[in-house]
Amino acid sequence: MPAPERTLERPPAETGTLSERAASLIEQDILAGDLAPGSRLGIIDLVQRYEIGATPLREGLSRLMSRGLIVGIGQRGFRVAEVSREDLADITCMRTAIEIEAVRLAILHGDVAWEAGIVSALHQMRRHIERTGNEFREGAADFDRLHKGFHTALLAACGSRRMLAAHSDLYDQAYRYRRVMMSAIDSGEGFIRSHQMLADHVLARDVAAAQKMLAAHLHSTIKFVYPEMRGEQS
Q: What region, left, alpha or beta, does residue 134 occupy, with left being phi > 0 and alpha being psi -120 to 50 degrees?
């Protein structure tokens, strides 16, 4: 006979570690498309899939719900967040509002170390693309890390951990849409050129130009994925 459930409970610290692992694994599968938009996330199925207990899985799901990657369905559990024109428009609006202010503050307060961080992040991304040719894609762990690292480096000196946290969450929420756009990019040179221009404006400390180009850069995803919305974006 199985032991009573209470004997299987883990200490709080270990449960916390497992909940973080659960959130990370589920997030990876959502962003990779292995858990489809709108799919139901049943606890029993997830326990079998990840071999993690129900309690840390629920905690991990709650973490992802706060980040907008999953939604609660009353007392019936959780679902992967749907994708839609409205959702991407909302993500883009929020990213633009936060990041154009964050880049202004970064330009105002950033030092030489911040500038070096931008140059290094761009260089690493360029070298990765040179090595992989035009085969680079969102979904490859190395490229995902370098791409996000570059965008984070631009804002790193803003002085607001909440802005950086919001940037991180919204970047991840836009990931599923960005993969659609990235699948059509066939020129690593063009990709790097657009990021080089963005870095140049920021490093020149031209606030107006940097904000304008950053806003256009963020809107490029929505203009590609939902071209009918072009007239709706400012």
A: alpha
User: Tokens 């203009």 map to which residue?
Assistant: 223
Partners of residue 72 on adjacent β-strands = 78
Asked if 118 and 124 touch (Cβ cutoff 8 Å), the reply is no
**pLDDT at site 212:** 97
CA-based nearest residue to 229, from 91, 80, 81:
91
pLDDT, residue 15, reads: 46
DSSP state of 72: E
Place of tokens 């990370």: 24
Torsions phi, psi for 204 (to 5 deg): -75, -5
Phi-psi region of 38 (alpha: psi -120 to 50; beta: other; left: phi over 0): left
**Segment 26-83, tens digit of pLDDT:** 988 887 778 888 899 988 999 999 999 999 998 899 888 887 889 888 766 889 988 8
Tokens 């992967």 -> residue = 80
Rounded Cα gap, residues 169 and 83, in angstroms: 16
Which residues in the chain land under pLDDT 70?
A: 1-16, 75-76, 134-140, 181-187, 228-234
**Closest by CA position to 165, among listed 174, 175, 178, 152:** 152
